[in-house]
Amino acid sequence: MLGFSTVLARTQIPHELLTTRSVAKYVARNSSKLTKEQTPASLPRYSCDVDAEPLERYHNGGYHPTHLGDVFKDGRYTVMHKLGWGGYGTVWLAKDHLLDRYAAIKLLVAESSSSHNQEIRLLDRLLKRPSDHHGKSHIVHLWDHFQHRGPNGIHSCLVFELLGPSVAFEAGRFKGARLPPKLAWEACQQTAKALECMHLNNVAHGDLHPGNIGFAISQSVYQTDSAIMDVLGTPERADVHAVRGASLGSQLPSYLVAPVSLRSMPKPQAGYQFKIIDFGSSHTTDEMPQIHCPLVFRPPEALFDHEWGTEADVWSLGCTMFEFIVGYPPFDNIIPDRDVLIRNWVSTFGPLPDKWTRHSPVSRMGSEDVDQSNLADWLHDTYFDDDKPVGFAEAHIEMAGEMLQSIMQYQPTDRPRLSRILEHPWFEKNPFVARRQ
Question: Residue 297 and residue 308: Cα distance in Å, rounded?
Answer without folding.
Answer: 13
